[in-house]
Design a protein that fits this description.
13 strands; 446 residues; binds nicotinamide-adenine-dinucleotide; alpha/beta; 7-stranded parallel beta sheet; Rossmann fold
Length: 446
């Protein structure tokens, strides 16, 4: 102890001995004064806590993208074991169907994500999901989908795609062959209420994911959900991939269009294999409560009126409603045909595929026809409140040309709106307990 004190004191130009004594006496007097009472000690502690809190809140204000601000509900040996088990394909290499894929599915607790994850698992591929379980719509539905996936051996990590540290960890633990990117802030009208959520998930989140993919070794091939909304004000029908998409009608559409440009950049610079899928109004069991067919069903059953929008000059709105199983087949065919990414160590080694496909049903149906089908299955007449469509970003009609997907993916939608809504209504009645008085998870309908 003495030696240490003397070494420290060497720094001061002092007469050996004399000053040392005076300094140490003065210091001990000061220390005594400072810490003499517990009250002073308490004040010091308070000061330290306040300084730390101010520093942290300042850092989170200037840098919200840093992973340390995401809850660390992941990590550890047990967690890694769960990830590896979930990611392992159950089709052995050399089997008739080919080697299994190992797929990271973002937005896995979402509507399309849950269906795709389950379909991949059922055919023997490895799947790990990631979802932030945000409350854009009832998170209990997302948790129910996660429970269903869990019962089939699919593990869903609770995390945000903006958490770069989490993504890096996932790629460290598993050499994913593919990423099926479905996480997004969906919905057209909500963009007027919460525009930042679209930038967070559809722009910043996308870039964060692409950064992790380009750094991963091996780089995965990416299949991701764009949207039919990129056609915006385009009025040439049916919508074809070669049509211009430079007039988006909503912020949602603009972020999806930006996503197509951003993924192109990563394909061009880093050699990531990219397939963008423009989904057309997907519906079905385990669907999204914010979508019209879902909220119509809820309101009709509860005896509440439904608002049916109509275009200018009393023209009915029409949508190319696409049943979720058809979309799932399109997603899986895209994964199976995606060429490899060519980069390593963040450097491109050669050109990689960049593809865009429409996935629709190519037979638009008007909204009043949709309501009539629901009324028939629910055996209740809806109270319709027909109003002119407000200028909130919705477009009057969508209609997909699916020749390209048919030719290159073998995509062939097989479910009519009549049949698809029947399956949806059956699921809805069962899930919300109209049949049995209880909520049950039942994958019979999936
Ligand atoms: N359903 C449709 O009709 C339709 C049409 C066109 C495009 N799409 C696109 O298809 C994809 C899937 O749509 P869906 O209908 O299943 O929507 P969904 O909202 O049910 O699923 C998206 C999931 O992503 C999660 N998520 C959102 N932001 C996230 C983030 N930052 N980090 C982690 N998870 C996040 C949500 O919690 C949600 O569970 C989306 O990209 C959507 O834009 C859907």
């Amino acid at each position: 102890m003495r030696v240490v004190v003397e070494e420290e004191e060497e720094e001061y130009p002092s007469t050996p001995g004399k000053v040392k004594v005076e300094r140490s006496a003065a210091m001990s007097r000061q220390l005594h004064r400072c810490f003499a009472s517990t009250g002073t000690l308490f004040l010091w502690a308070l000061f330290l806590v306040a300084t730390t809190a101010t520093y942290l809140s300042f850092r989170s204000f200037v840098d919200t993208s840093s992973s340390r601000y995401f809850p660390a509900s992941w990590g550890g040996l047990h967690w890694e074991r769960q990830i590896r088990a979930s990611a392992s394909p159950r089709r052995p290499p050399g089997s008739a169907e080919g080697a299994g894929l190992s797929v990271l599915v973002t937005g896995a607790a979402g509507f399309v994500g849950a269906h795709c994850s389950l379909a991949l698992r059922k055919r023997g591929d490895g799947v790990v999901g990631i979802d932030n379980f945000n409350s854009y719509y009832d998170p209990s539905l997302k948790k129910a989908r996660r429970a269903l996936l869990g019962s089939h051996g699919v593990f869903v990590v609770e995390g945000d795609i903006n958490d770069g540290r989490l993504l890096t960890k996932l790629f460290d633990v598993v050499p994913f062959t593919h990423v099926l990117h479905l996480a997004a802030q969906a919905g057209v009208r909500y963009a007027m209420e919460n525009p930042a959520s679209y930038v967070h998930s559809n722009i910043a989140g996308l870039v964060s994911l692409l950064e992790a993919c380009k750094d991963a070794d091996p780089q995965p091939a990416i299949v991701w959900a764009s949207s039919s909304s990129v056609y915006g004000l385009n009025d040439r029908v049916p919508f074809s991939e070669s049509h211009p998409t430079d007039q988006p009608a909503s912020l949602y559409a603009a972020t999806k269009k930006a996503g197509e440009e951003i993924t192109h950049t990563y394909n061009h610079i880093y050699g990531l294999s990219v397939t963008g899928l423009r989904f057309f109004t997907v519906y079905g069991p385990w669907g999204r409560p914010d979508m019209a067919y879902f909220s119509f069903t809820r309101n009709i059953l509860q005896g509440k009126p439904i608002t049916v929008y109509r275009g200018r000059d009393h023209v009915d709105l029409a949508r190319d409603f696409t049943y979720v199983d058809d979309i799932v087949r399109g997603c899986l065919a895209s994964l199976d045909t995606a060429g490899r990414s060519t980069g390593t160590g963040g450097k491109k080694r050669g050109p990689a595929p960049y593809r865009i496909f429409n996935l629709g049903n190519t037979s638009p149906v008007t909204v009043p026809t949709l309501v009539a089908i629901l009324e028939r299955y629910l055996r209740v007449n809806a109270m319709k409140h027909v109003v002119e469509m407000p200028g909130n970003g919705d477009v009057p009609f969508t209609h997909a040309n699916i020749s390209l997907a048919r030719e290159q993916l073998g995509y062939k939608p097989a479910t009519s709106l009549e049949m698809g809504l029947k399956k949806f209504v059956r699921w809805y009645l069962s899930y919300y307990g109209y049949n049995r008085g209880t909520h049950e998870f039942n994958d019979h309908y999936l």
